[in-house]
User: Which sequence fits this backbone?
C-alpha cells in the first residue's frame, strides 16, 4: 500500500573511522542517495555488542529502527558505492517483503539448523545493501539462541573468500544472521536484481559497486575507475605529481598508500623495497627519497597470479625498467629477498625498509627476520588487510608496536623496539 511521507532511515556501520580513503569516496554518494529518496542517515559508530565481531553491530538496527519509528529501514555498507540514478526501492518493494542486493546459495556458506531446513528456500543474505519495512524488522533481530562460538561455527567461508586474504569467518556473522532470520521468521524475500527485472532492468547491479574481498587501498583505486566509467572525473590538482604518475603504472596500491610512501621517503637517506613488480610503489619511493632506493625483486612473481603472468609471457622487469629506470637513485637488486639481505649490493644499515613481496605468514616472518636487523629508522609494509600479514607482524614486533594506516600500510618505528 502506498504511504504518504513514510519515515526512512539509511544506516551504515563505521567504527573508529574505518577506511577513511574509501568513505571519502562513498559517503558523498550515500548522502546524495539519502537526499534523493528523502531518508535520514544514521552512522553506527559505537559498539553495543563488544563480545561479537564488529560487523554484528549492524543488528543495533533492530532497536534503533523501533525507537525512531521508521516505516522503512535501509542498510548500506560504508564501502558500497551508490550510483546517483539508483531508484527508491521503497516505492517498488512490498512492505511485507525484505530485499538485499543478491542472494547466495545458503548451503555453500552456512551449516544448517532446523530453521534453514524447515524454510527450504536456501537464501543466503548479502547484507551490504538490505531493505526492510517496520513489518519485517525481525530481519535485524540479534541472535538470542546461539553463543558467539556456536554462530561462528555455523559459518563456512567460500574458497574465494578464504583465498582473498581479506575475509575471515567473523566478517560473515551479519550475512549469517540475516539469512537465519529470513528462515527463522519466514520473511518473504526478493533480491534487488530480481526486483529490478520486473521493471525491465536486467542488470540491477548497474546501480552499485561493492567488492568485499579486496583490501581497502585497492577498493579506493577501483572506485575511482568506477566513477570514471559513470562519467565522473576526479580533480588531481591536490595530489603531488609523482603520485599521479605512479598511479599510471600497473599495480594495486591505492593513492593514499602511495602518498604516504612518497612523503615518508622524503625523510629517509636510504630505502629498500622488497617486492617491486612493475614499479608502481617504487616510483613513489624514488621520487621522494634523495638517497639510494634499493629495489629488491627476482621479478618471477611473488604470487601464483604473477608467476602465471610471467609464464604466459608478461615481462615485469622490462616494464619496471621502462617505468622507473630513469631515476638516478635507483639501485636494482635482481635477487630473492634472502639473497639481497646478504648481498654486498645492499648496505648493512638502511633507514627505511618497505616489504611488499610474498604475503604468506612464513614468507612475511622470513622477511622480517632478514630485514629488521638492517633497519635504522622505519620498517613498514603493505596489505595489512591480509590475515597472514597481520599475524606475522604482530607476532614479530608485538601489536602495541605496530602502527596501521594510512590505507593498507603497516609500520614500526625502530626506536619503539630498541
Assistant:
Amino acid at each position: 500500500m502506498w504511504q504518504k511521507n513514510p519515515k526512512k532511515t539509511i544506516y551504515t556501520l563505521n567504527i573508529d573511522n574505518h577506511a577513511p580513503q574509501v568513505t571519502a569516496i562513498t559517503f558523498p554518494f550515500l548522502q546524495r542517495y539519502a537526499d534523493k529518496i528523502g531518508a535520514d542517515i544514521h552512522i553506527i559508530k559505537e559498539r553495543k555488542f563488544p563480545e561479537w565481531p564488529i560487523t554484528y553491530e549492524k543488528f543495533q538496527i533492530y532497536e534503533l529502527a523501533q525507537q525512531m519509528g521508521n516505516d522503512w529501514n535501509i542498510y548500506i555498507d560504508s564501502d558500497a558505492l551508490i550510483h546517483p540514478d539508483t531508484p527508491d526501492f521503497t516505492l517498488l518493494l512490498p512492505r511485507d517483503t525484505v530485499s538485499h542486493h543478491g542472494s547466495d546459495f545458503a548451503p555453500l556458506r552456512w551449516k544448517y539448523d532446523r530453521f534453514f531446513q524447515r524454510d527450504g528456500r536456501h537464501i543466503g543474505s548479502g547484507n551490504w545493501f538490505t531493505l526492510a519495512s517496520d513489518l519485517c524488522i525481525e530481519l535485524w533481530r540479534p541472535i538470542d539462541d546461539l553463543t558467539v562460538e556456536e554462530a561462528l561455527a555455523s559459518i563456512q567461508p567460500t574458497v574465494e573468500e578464504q583465498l582473498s586474504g581479506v575475509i575471515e569467518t567473523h566478517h560473515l556473522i551479519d550475512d549469517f544472521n540475516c539469512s537465519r532470520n529470513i528462515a527463522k521468521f519466514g520473511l518473504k524475500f526478493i533480491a534487488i536484481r530480481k526486483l529490478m527485472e520486473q521493471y525491465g532492468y536486467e542488470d540491477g547491479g548497474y546501480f552499485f559497486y561493492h567488492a568485499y574481498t579486496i583490501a581497502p587501498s585497492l577498493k579506493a583505486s577501483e572506485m575511482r575507475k568506477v566513477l570514471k566509467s559513470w562519467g565522473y572525473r576526479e580533480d588531481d590538482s591536490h595530489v603531488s605529481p609523482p603520485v599521479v604518475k605512479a598511479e599510471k603504472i600497473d599495480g594495486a596500491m591505492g593513492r593514499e598508500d602511495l602518498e604516504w610512501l612518497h612523503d615518508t621517503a622524503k625523510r629517509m637517506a636510504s630505502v629498500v623495497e622488497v617486492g617491486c613488480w612493475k614499479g608502481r610503489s617504487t616510483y613513489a619511493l624514488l621520487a621522494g627519497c634523495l638517497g639510494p632506493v634499493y629495489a629488491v625483486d627476482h621479478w618471477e612473481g611473488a604470487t601464483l597470479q604473477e608467476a602465471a603472468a610471467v609464464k604466459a609471457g608478461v615481462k615485469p622487469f622490462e616494464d619496471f625498467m621502462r617505468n622507473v629506470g630513469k631515476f638516478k637513485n635507483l639501485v636494482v637488486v635482481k635477487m630473492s629477498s634472502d639473497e639481497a639481505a646478504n648481498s654486498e649490493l645492499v648496505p648493512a644499515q638502511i633507514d627505511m625498509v618497505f616489504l611488499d613481496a610474498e604475503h604468506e605468514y612464513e614468507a612475511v616472518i622470513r622477511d622480517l627476520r632478514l630485514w629488521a636487523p638492517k633497519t635504522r629508522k622505519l620498517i613498514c609494509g603493505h596489505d595489512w588487510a591480509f590475515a597472514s600479514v597481520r599475524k606475522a607482524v604482530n607476532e614479530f614486533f608485538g601489536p602495541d608496536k605496530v602502527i596501521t594506516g594510512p590505507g593498507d600500510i603497516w609500520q614500526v618505528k625502530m626506536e619503539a623496539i630498541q
